[in-house]
Design brief:
alpha+beta, D-Amino Acid Oxidase, Chain A, domain 2, FAD/NAD(P)-binding domain, Helicase, Ruva Protein, domain 3, 3 domains, 9-stranded mixed beta sheet, 3-stranded antiparallel beta sheet, binds flavin-adenine dinucleotide, Glycerol-3-phosphate dehydrogenase/oxidase, oxidoreductase, FAD, FAD/NAD-bd_sf, G3P_DH_FAD-dep
Length: about 500
């Protein structure tokens, strides 16, 4: 789309995340771009890759990942033996970076709280407070118990993604930003279903498709379609799943089937609506607006550029304030767990010996908690039974459920199974066998009664059933209807 500025900004942020802000969570991943045309394609793609390598450089510093490399057919097959050799003439290998987005968000919130921010979850803004034309705060509803209260503020920043149209409408009918929801789904399949030491990026008619290494799994995605149904629970339909399988099977020696799919998940991209009808062609750029005094709105953008979006929104808000606010310094603030991460990583064998936890598990903890992994190991020291892996989800330990509840704001079993961990998409049974154990570990920490504990388990099982059912439906409408009815928030009893 010739959005060079946008690509450069994203690459510079990626480099900052890899090297300073979140080296414990963001890691480089090699990808192959298979070439199908002789002569013109290699120099054309090579130029693009060169640009990608150099746009991310800031002040001569490394951009945090190795540069691209050309491979011939033999080298390509050595890197990805399961690729069909008749669909490519060679490839270009380049590096990108990946992150578990939910872990990243929790880490950003915890870091902000560490520096004095107040964070609250499960509070919905139901209205804004006004003094004349000015917005002076928000009226919020606690979704756990239904109570409402007011929060006053000098400036309010509205950053509600795909809900921007609705939240803007609470304050003005002169809403400046229009946001469209574009649904993207991903499939999770076991790593052993095909052999490759690298990820893949494949061209499709509208966009590209990624096959991304993810621990003991592959993630395959994504789709890009307009979504006008329930925004809280975008549902993957059978058509979406078949589309991804069909596209990836074009390049694999042994095709994947529905039986190979361990998990499926769907998300919504908040895209700034323009004239273009195709969501794949809308820019991923972000925009900050100030529709009425006291209220700033930020929307669009990419996950990678979250820090720039936040900086721009706060700058806009503080411009309207009387007191002087120092310039943003978030490009120099490592997230919690980043400081000392490499030193702790080097000591991982010693940590394993001292804690009695296998070094592979210590590595897993370091990759999730960085230098804070010691806090999880301390829980195990105090209660050795917390070193037990969860049933059906061997990658995760009981201690992680406790830590998610005491340190990471988890309020319900689905918070733990879907976001603090990824059991809901990584386990064959989607967390069905883990959920009673998770509920038992959380219950005493959150003061749940027996009824509440059972309610949590039943609710999670209903959610898994609804998601499975929705994924068998032929289209968005029927998938949405099947997914509806199981809400996310449980009332406190
Ligand atoms: C399939 C897919 C693949 C993607 N891949 C990439 C990628 O590779 N790289 C990349 O950089 N980006 C990627 N993105 C984009 C990225 O995920 C989004 O840009 C980002 O998550 C948007 O974040 P947001 O906070 O602006 O909005 P959202 O994530 O939509 O968050 C909005 C929040 O507002 C809250 N909210 C809504 N209404 C209210 C209310 N009334 N009161 C209080 N809170 C409210 C919601 O609960 C929600 O938490 C991808 C997105 C998808 C769907």
């Amino acid at each position: 789309m010739l959005d060079f500025g946008l690509v450069q900004e994203a690459l510079q942020e990626r480099s900052l995340l890899l090297t300073r802000i979140a080296p414990h969570l963001v890691r480089p991943v090699p990808f192959l771009y298979p070439l199908t045309h002789r002569f013109w394609e290699r120099p054309y793609v090579g130029m693009g890759m060169l640009l990608y390598d150099t746009l991310g450089l800031t002040g001569g510093r490394s951009n945090g990942v190795p540069v691209h490399k050309h491979l011939f057919r033999r080298g390509t097959l050595r890197a990805a033996p399961s690729l069909r050799d008749d669909v490519m003439i060679g490839s270009v290998r380049y590096y990108d970076a990946q992150v578990d987005d939910a872990r990243m968000v929790v880490n950003v919130v915890r870091t902000a709280a560490h520096y004095g921010a107040h964070a609250a979850n499960r509070l919905a803004v139901v209205d804004f407070l006004h003094e004349g034309e000015h917005v002076v705060g928000a009226r919020v509803k606690n979704q756990e118990d239904g109570t409402e209260f007011a929060i006053r503020a000098k400036q309010v920043i509205n950053a509600t993604g795909v809900w921007t149209d609705e939240t803007q409408a609470l304050v003005t009918d002169r809403g400046q930003l229009k946001v469209r929801a574009s649904k993207g789904i991903h499939l999770v399949v076991p790593r052993d279903r095909f052999q490759s030491t690298v990820g893949l990026i494949l061209r499709t008619e509208k966009s590209v498709l990624f096959v991304i290494p993810w621990g003991r799994h592959w993630i395959i995605g994504t789709t890009d379609t307009d979504w006008r149904l329930d925004k809280a629970h975008p549902a993957a339909s059978s058509k979406d799943i078949d589309y991804l399988l069909e596209r990836v099977n074009k390049v694999l020696k042994r095709p994947l089937t529905r039986e190979d799919v361990e998990g499926v998940y769907a998300g919504l991209r908040p895209l700034l609506a323009g004239e273009n009808d195709s969501t794949a062609k809308l820019s991923r750029e972000h925009v900050v607006a100030h529709p009425v005094p006291g209220l700033v709105v930020v929307a669009g953008g990419k996950f990678t550029t979250y820090r720039v979006m936040a900086r721009d929104a706060v700058d806009e808000a503080t411009r309207a304030m009387d007191e002087r606010v120092p310039a943003s310094c978030t490009d120099r603030i490592p997230l919690l767990g980043a400081d000392g991460f490499r030193a702790v990583w080097n000591r991982r064998q010693r940590l394993a010996d001292r804690s009695g936890v296998h070094v592979a598990r210590v590595e897993h903890l370091l990759n999730r908690y960085g230098s804070l992994a010691g806090e999880v190991l301390d829980l195990i020291k105090a209660r050795p039974e917390l070193a037990e892996p969860l049933p059906g989800a061997d990658d995760y330990l009981g201690a992680e459920v406790v830590y998610a509840t005491t340190h990471e704001g988890a309020r319900h079993v689905h918070d733990v199974l879907t976001r603090r961990t990824r059991i809901a998409i990584e386990a064959w049974d989607r967390g069905v066998s883990a959920v009673p154990v998770v509920a038992d570990l959380m219950a005493p920490l959150l003061g749940w009664s027996h009824v509440q504990r059972d309610n949590e388990v039943a609710h999670y099982l209903a959610r898994v059933r609804a998601e499975r059912l929705s994924q068998q439906q032929p289209d968005d409408e029927s998938a949405d209807a099947a997914r509806m009815g199981v809400d996310d928030i449980l009332p406190v009893k």
